[in-house]
Description:
Layout lengths: L10 E3 L3 E2 L7 E2 L1 E4 L7 H9 L3 E3 L2 E5 L8 E6 L7 H9 L3 E6 L5 H14 L10 H8 L6 E8 L2 E10 L3 E9 L8 H15 L4 E7 L15 E5 L2 E5 L1 H6 L7
Parallel strand pairs: 11-12
Antiparallel strand pairs: 1-4, 2-3, 4-6, 5-6, 7-12, 7-13, 8-9, 9-10, 10-11, 13-14
Amino acid sequence: xxxxxxxxxxxxxxxxxxxxxxxxxxxxxxxxxxxxxxxxxxxxxxxxxxxxxxxxxxxxxxxxxxxxxxxxxxxxxxxxxxxxxxxxxxxxxxxxxxxxxxxxxxxxxxxxxxxxxxxxxxxxxxxxxxxxxxxxxxxxxxxxxxxxxxxxxxxxxxxxxxxxxxxxxxxxxxxxxxxxxxxxxxxxxxxxxxxxxxxxxxxxxxxxxxxxxxxxxxxxxxxxxxxxxxxxxxxxxxxxxxxxxxxxxx
Length: 250
């Protein structure tokens, strides 16, 4: 992987540390040198090679004895919603998707606190404060938007989305845990697919598909789905995506 002409990047590799997704394993992570501020072109290239953003940091798992974290993306032009996804869209026909600045909004933060308490109780993300919230989701160099999902005045969800040259990157979504009947997480992905298509972009980058992590398996419900292994992207057959099977790319 070579950065665009005129861009210089450095990388750091962490010592082994406890994996945040599979607690019985150790992880190793490669980070882009935080002293270098990537351009959007560079960030796009890094996303094409399986990197993700968390706050100001761009990273990718690089575990020597594990390849469970598999980058996944949706080719939005080829996506067709299945029956469950169509029902989600129909139930949420009055929900508006509103672009807002990637800054602190008290209403967003209070929703985030409720979401973390319900979804990540007992974990490292529990009891977030304003500073940790902003450090996790915002970034001074990325082209980020906080997309609200509102039913009339009620805030149902917020999707943090980075705009790349070839697609959108779904950085993080948090939602009202009392509104699960509306499948707000699924709705956020479906609306990002629609947005990417409207902007004539190719991809919605979903982050890592981790079959052994229950909270990360949802990505396989989107078809077609592409995964990045051994330095290349490959499209999963629908039956492979639903079963969790992965193609042999070697």
